[in-house]
Structures are given as C-alpha cells and as structure tokens.
C-alpha cells in the first residue's frame, strides 16, 4: 500500500512541477527590439510602439545601439519613427501578442533607410 501512495505522490509532484514551469514560462514572455545606428550620422527622436507600449530614445550616435525589453500589453503591429537630418523616417514591423515572444533588430542607415530583421537572438 505504501508503494502505491508513494508512486501517487511522485506522479502528483511531477504534474505540479510541469504546471508551475508552464505558468512561469507564460508569465515571462519578453520581447527584445535592438536598434542599431549603422551609419556615421546621428539619429534623433526615435519612437517605437509595439505590443501596446511606446518607447522613446532621444538619440543614437554613430555606431551606437539601444535595446528595448518589454512584455506586450496587447496585440498589434510595431512601428518605428526616427529623425535624420531634419527628416522623419518611419517603418512598420512585426506583430506582437501578450503570450508570445519575438525579437527584432532595427538598423538605421545614413541614407534614411530602416532595415528590420525578425526572429533574431538578442
């Protein structure tokens, strides 16, 4: 009888551990957006909206980078706008949901182009 109770307790502990790890994983879904200035000019007033959140980076000097880490509040696409030499450039990217993680690299270039890489390991 004791071995049956012991096996039952071990099985319950395994189930509890699986459920706990699942809940912890779901609660820790974070998104990373890394922004890189690949050029020699300064980018200013960088605004990013993604997953129901908004972020502002005042400036990225030449060769500089900045990473945004966040949990999504809502579903929706991402958008970046940034100023180079007095002209605002913008680009839409990705789709964010509260229960999934995604990673992006955004590269700002001297010609005003904005390149996006999705699904990268930051």
Question: How would you characterize this protein structure?
Answer:
It is a single chain. The protein is of the alpha+beta class and 122 residues long. It has a single domain, classed as Domain of unknown function DUF5300 (Immunoglobulin-like, Sandwich), CATH 2.60.40.2890. Helices cover 21% and strands 48% of the residues. The protein contains one helix and eight strands. Strands 4-1-7-8 form a four-stranded mixed β-sheet, with no helix packed on it.
**What does the main sheet amount to?**
4 strands, mixed
SS field, number of helical segments:
1
Mean pLDDT value: 88
Basic shape: elongated
Strand order of the largest sheet: 4-1-7-8
**CATH level-4 homologous superfamily:** Domain of unknown function DUF5300
Beta-strand content bin: over 45%
The third-level CATH topology is: Immunoglobulin-like
* Strand/helix succession: HEEEEEEEE
N-to-C CA distance = 53 Å
Q: Which class in CATH terms? A: Mainly Beta
Helix share, percent: 10-25%
Structural class: alpha+beta
What's the total count of β strands? 8
Short description:
This protein is α+β, with helices and mostly antiparallel strands and 122 residues long. It has one helix at residues 2-27, and strands spanning 31-37, 43-50, 53-60, 65-70, 76-84, 87-96, 103-108, 114-118.
Keywords summarizing the entry:
122 residues, alpha+beta, Immunoglobulin-like, 4-stranded mixed beta sheet, 1 helix, 48% strand
